[in-house]
Model the fold of this input.
Amino acid sequence: MDYTLERHLSYKQSIQFVKNHKGTAIGNGIIFMLMLLIPVIGIIFVLPLSVTAASTETIKIVLNTEKKHVL
Done:
């Protein structure tokens, strides 16, 4: 989430964002920590997948939030 939030929000806003969306942050973390338990393959797949999944989910949330403020 941090990579995406750095581009869209300030430091204080990103902290508040993560506090408001704890489920997404924890859910992504748990899934990818479990993937690390798979020997060798887990390490290879978890790095690109975790960044991609966190970025896409964060962008969806940010865009939905922006739409609500515009309307």
Remarks:
- The mean pLDDT is 87.
- The CA atoms of residues 18 and 25 lie 7 Å apart.
